[in-house]
Amino acid sequence: FLADKPQVVAANKMDVGTSAANLKRLKRAVKVKVFPISGVTGEGVAELMTTLAQTLPTLPVPVPPESDTPNPRAMEKPIVPLGVERASEGIYVARGTKLEKLVARTYLENENALRHLQSQLYKLGLDKLLEDAGAQEGDAVRIGELEFDYVPGL
């Protein structure tokens, strides 16, 4: 529990006019060491930092609590390598984690975004994979929900 941990209080804004009265009330209210500091003037900051630097090495190393929550990385989908397969006459399906993420995060209604996507698909080697799979100009290519006509060399 947090309440079981060693504590200090840094009372900031000690450069403000009403701070002295507030500091007295704070010290009466808490049962831990109170460090009056000012972020503006730097007053008290060195003493606070010195105390923290001396205290931290004496504390036990925290042990992470056991958790029933699975590791988020373990829940990730496996990485699918880039690949192309012929689905039927004139229709090719391209798959791959990078490819699908790239298409998913592209705003397909924007002409500049489409040009950028086209450039990235070429850099990933999609054009060569389609050619190797036997795709011809005008064949349909599907990447997730996206479908377009194959034009070699673009």
Describe the protein's topology.
Layout: E1 8-11, H1 19-29, E2 33-36, H2 45-55, E3 83-88, E4 91-95, H3 97-104, H4 111-124, H5 126-132, E5 140-143, E6 146-149
Parallel strand pairs: 1-2, 4-5
Antiparallel strand pairs: 3-4, 5-6
Write structural notes for this entry.
The chain has 154 residues and is an alpha/beta fold. Helices cover 33% and strands 18% of the residues. It has five helices and six strands; from the N terminus they run βαβαββαααββ. The strands form two sheets. A four-stranded mixed sheet has the order 3-4-5-6. A two-stranded parallel ribbon has the order 1-2. A hairpin with a 2-residue loop joins β3 and β4. The longest helix is centred in the C-terminal third of the chain and has 14 residues, at 111-124. The relative contact order is 0.10. The mean pLDDT is 90.
